[in-house]
Write a sequence for this structure.
């Protein structure tokens, strides 16, 4: 029987100076870090190398040939292998409300572009979100591109994976969380008219397709972002950023509790 070399699980790879450094700052476990020989004495890597040594993370200095075989080209001569990403469960994510109120969740309905997922996680972290929720199938998981696009935010924001987005929305509602879906249509209202001051979840749809009709029906309130130009919709990560920081803006005011 022919033996095959063990396949590298690329979801466990983090690459790029900033993304790897953020993993070290957050105390995320790393199995090893590969650094280009030509960057061994680079001042830009001084802090990263010091943190790696302090955390007893093995460092290996590699030739250009090592990085030439690496599938992700924007590695900047720094590649780390971490432990498999530790997803939380939906129940654990909901339980996080006990730490800080009001809670803020971001639910991604089959957002497949890892750059968008990473950018959304980054915005969610900046807005103080409680957790991000994404489906197990037809969605980008937390892979190297997501980690890099998030600028390290995946190390700080709990991320849950669920089997069914519609069921997850129902579970959030049963827990007393108001669910707002971002979509255009006759049932939608301008996002600035929605009361986002209580415990809320923002549902962001897939690129091009938007929120699935079944998921939209489960939402308490549908909101849209008025467009002035000829393009009918925004990039998913841009739409998420607008809604997240509208929530932040509203929470700077006194809150009378969740509502629509």
């Amino acid at each position: 029987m022919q033996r095959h070399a063990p396949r590298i699980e690329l979801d466990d790879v983090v690459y790029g100076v900033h993304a790897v450094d953020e993993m070290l700052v957050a105390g995320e476990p790393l199995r090893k870090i590969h650094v280009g020989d030509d960057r061994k004495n680079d001042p830009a890597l001084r802090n990263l190398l010091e943190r790696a040594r302090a955390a007893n993370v093995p460092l290996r200095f590699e030739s250009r040939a090592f990085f030439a075989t690496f599938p992700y080209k924007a590695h900047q001569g720094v590649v780390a292998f971490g432990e498999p990403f530790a997803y939380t469960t939906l129940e654990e994510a909901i339980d996080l409300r006990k730490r800080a109120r009001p809670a803020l969740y971001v639910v991604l309905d089959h957002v497949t572009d890892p750059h968008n997922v990473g950018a959304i996680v980054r915005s969610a972290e900046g807005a103080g979100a409680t957790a991000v929720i994404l489906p197990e199938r037809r969605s980008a998981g937390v892979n190297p591109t997501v980690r890099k696009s998030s600028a390290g935010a995946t190390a700080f924001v709990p991320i849950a994976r669920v089997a069914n987005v519609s069921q997850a929305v129902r579970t959030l509602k049963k827990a007393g969380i108001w669910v707002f879906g971002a979509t255009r249509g006759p049932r939608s209202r301008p996002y600035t008219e929605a009361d986002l001051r209580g415990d809320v979840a923002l549902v962001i749809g897939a690129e091009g397709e938007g929120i699935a009709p079944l998921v939209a029906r489960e939402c308490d309130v549908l909101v849209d972002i008025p467009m002035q130009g000829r393009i009918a919709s925004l990039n998913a990560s841009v739409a998420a950023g607008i809604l997240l920081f509208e929530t932040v803006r509203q929470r700077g005011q006194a809150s009378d509790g969740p509502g629509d």
Remarks:
- The CA atoms of residues 39 and 45 lie 7 Å apart.
